[in-house]
Model the fold of this input.
Amino acid sequence: MNETHFGARDLSLAYGKKRIIEALNIDIPIGYITALIGRNGSGKSTLLKAMARLIQPHGGAVYINGQSIHAMPTREVSRRLAILPQHPQSPEGLTVEELVWHGRFPHQSVWGGKRKEDRQIVQWAMEMTGVSEWADRPLSSLSGGQRQRAWIAMALAQKTPLLLLDEPTTYLDLAYQIEVLDLLKRLNETEGITVVMVLHDINQAARYAHQLIALRDGKVVAQGTPSSVITPETLESVFGIQARVIADPVTGHPMCIPLSSASRKKMKQPVALGQ
Done:
């Protein structure tokens, strides 16, 4: 399916009586990577869940091509977008290939059965994520980074134009974080998949995303390219930190260098003449 628009209008979300997001408006650029950033409790994961129709809005809606996803059949939504939650769970003993097959459920008939097309897509998803060699291994036997790639393969097997991920690098060491983010970048560039993800690491968000959406208290503080969002003023407003922003020596993207209290005091001290 060719998606031309994905976003939210006047979206309000709450848990019980506690309002998390109020009348929020965002547009997700199709064919690009968007990262949601902000402090804990800013509403990032709640917004992502609403965009995947896992949470019912108190007001407004999320739209795909002008149609509210909350009015669409569940199977139809599953064919349009896939979500990888922060802590995905699978049955004990499930193999990698069995997990990836779960991604084909929205496309299978009520009579079940594994069609040739489904088999080809499952194989493609495993090859794209580099998990084919572990197809028969239990998911529980894999390392954290390998497991995350298997889950991404399952999401890919849904064959959706939109892929949503909630903190896909959480609990992974740095090498696996880069591996997962490189994979998402490659999927975006080679397959044209629109990626929306929640990230905690500001510098990784600036390096891998085309667009950033910075949230604070359920409101959009800034939205745009990394260069327009990662500024000292926005970082202080969103994260409550003072920081310097420099060009990443590898990519040229903005890089945040947080200042410690000692650094801030030193910067304020007058420099004696002759030093």
Observations:
- Residues 271-275 have pLDDT under 50 and may be disordered.
- The longest strand covers residues 18-28.
